[in-house]
């Protein structure tokens, strides 16, 4: 009996036949054997044919492709180089990234007809902050001491450098340090700066008598150091030991390093003093900062009088909006444009002006070997100062029309006649302090940049809407001061300048789409009006909760029933 074969039969072997030899199954050998048995045997292959056959078989394998791919690539390159003429070099056009080029004038020309025919804005200035207090209001609550002060550990003399609001930082921080160390603070000395060129003293800008009186139960403040102490230093303050303190030092550093020297010498000097105290500090230090900034510092009577007069005149000119006006802090002075290193549409003349301004103000800082300045990247990053035209486009997109009164807080605008023309066309009721005040009223302050800035500060503080267009101490202090006055809400528009750079450089955007983007930006500023201070935030911008307390519902209802 034969065993059952489960392999399919080829038809040539019987079930009892033995399996064929592997050699006999090779197609190549079968072909040779059959060919040998037939007449007309083909001629043997040549050497070239055999080499081609071997090469083809190798290339058909995966490893072969990787081996011969570099050879094929080099052969192709050599062939291509032989067919291309190098007499003509192809031109590669560089296309700047969207948002990296100043094209706002072209956008304004495109949007102007539809913008002028848009009548959909109704009473925008009175309804802008409709969601501002949904989280509840806040009120000022700074505790004051009523008892006497212990014996002083010595005198602290500081030099406040910078402009108006950087000096304000130094004053408030000096009050906090002196109170914490139980020292007597000498009225801060203002350092003369080559940029601001203002020789004003403390009493020229602030009400010195009111400042001392407001802090009398918290910090001792004197105008001069007693003679018996200065006698040891030949009555020369430069001979007094000067602490070179690192920026943003903690209050513990003052306790551990400054206090021992103060106890030893009875007087120390700290110069410069701007930004020499960390934003984070114990509640006792923050309380003194709040007290100094929001209650003790008041502008001098002459500055306050003119500032209040200009506020009243702005309200008179805003009668069609119930006395409400917008204030805009515009930083488009020549030194600001030069420092930013941004490029606008002034061509070669602008370049010459900016190069000269940079050399005049910063002497070689921008021309150091290896320094690379990329204006396009600066613009994309939202660091370029907004032009007057861009501010006007933004505000019109946010719903403010030609009937809106605007106060412009600024220094001398670069190339003002050209740059201010479109803004005045969009907002004909725009005013500046030079337009509101007579030449005689401004004369006592004209050559003093800090005093002029203090007048701008006062008019901006009392506006219904404040618009900041560039960073800096001026808007940061106004943010906090307005929050302190208006129930915790800053009532401030803070535009997203990165987003603006893309929108202003978009030639395809229409008025409706542009306006929708601006209204969203305005709504975002409203929702961010009330913000609590976080770690590393400045108490001068975020007074809640260190300087203010939340108004509870019972207090709200009690106050509403009284009215």
Key structural traits:
563 residues; 6-stranded parallel sheet; 13 strands; globular; disordered C terminus
Walk me through the structure.
This protein has helices spanning 22-25, 27-37, 47-59, 62-83, 104-116, 124-127, 164-180, 202-205, 208-214, 227-230, 251-265, 283-296, 301-316, 334-340, 347-362, 375-380, 388-397, 416-426, 433-436, 439-442, 449-461, 473-485, 497-504, 511-527, 553-562, and strands at 138-140, 155-160, 184-186, 189-190, 220-222, 242-243, 267-270, 326-329, 406-409, 430-431, 465-468, 492-493, 548-550. The chain has 563 residues and is an alpha/beta fold. The strands form three sheets. Strands 2, 3, 4, 5, 6 and 7 form a six-stranded parallel β-sheet that branches. The chain has a five-stranded parallel β-sheet with strand order 10-9-8-11-12. The longest helix has 22 residues, at 62-83. It is globular, with a radius of gyration of 39 Å. 34% of the residues are buried.
Treating each run of at least 4 consecutive H or I residues as one helix, how many helices?
A: 25
Broad structural category = alpha/beta
- Mean pLDDT, all residues: 86
The radius of gyration is: 39 Å
What is the makeup of the main sheet? 6 strands, parallel
Content of β-strand: 5-15%
Could you tell me how far the N terminus lies from the C terminus, measured between alpha carbons in angstroms?
A: 120 Å
| Strands, count | 13
Query: How does the overall form come out from the CA principal axes?
Result: globular
Stretches where pLDDT is under 50 for at least 5 consecutive residues are: 1-39, 553-563
Quaternary state of the chains: single chain
- Helix percent reads 40-55%
